[in-house]
What we know:
The protein is of the alpha/beta class. Helix content is 40%, strand content 19%. The strands form 2 sheets. Strands 2-3-1-4-9-5-8 form a 7-stranded mixed beta sheet, with helices on both faces. Strands 6-7 form a two-stranded antiparallel ribbon. A hairpin with a 2-residue loop joins strand 2 (70-71) and strand 3. It starts with a helix and ends with a helix.
Amino acid sequence: MKxxxxxxxxxxxxxxxxxxxxxxxxxxxxxxxxxxxxxPSVVLITGFEPFDIYEVNPSQLIAETLDxxxxxxxxxxxIVLPVDFEESVENITQAMExxxxxxxxxxxxxxxxxxINVEKFGVNLKKLPRNESLWIFPRRIxxxxxxxxxxxxxxxxxxMDIRSDDILVKQSLFAxxxxxxxxxxETLGYIDERDLSIRAGFIHVPLLPSQDPxxxxxxxxxxxxxxxxxxxxxxx
Length: 236
């Protein structure tokens, strides 16, 4: 009888110690790692492939250079989009679904500018160049969508921080009516419709000095986009 009582007490002690280790007070290091391990934050940067007469697109080079870098603890994923209204939107939405980024900054080439343009609005209009289509009047991107989508980036702060690094930059209120504007408008609409906690916006970059005497060095553009990422990540 005494022997049975000793076995019974031993079993109770074993059960108590086992449950304590696995469910509460004395959690092991392995348990802690399993509970608290989280995927790193991702920043999605997109550029565009070459188009029209431009055999090199600086936005593509920037996205490819930043791909794989870690900025303020966030991993940068850089992808290159086709210069096509439908395919570009499909690619960026697939990337958002696959990477679940906390920040999306799309980049595009604006041959007419000589400074970094941080875009504020995407408009519900698209228009193809005259040599690509029979229709030349603007059409709506989304027949049921709002006329304007506003960037959720802190554009003013980004401009100020880039300017403080002696880089030529301005805030722009109109991203045009080509694929760049469509990506900005559609990305913001996608995020808004699904109520996602993702900040998103668009930055236009100028040509390189090899393409235009008044162009901007690639490293300078990379620095500007890096600052935009850092400012966006640190701003609540």
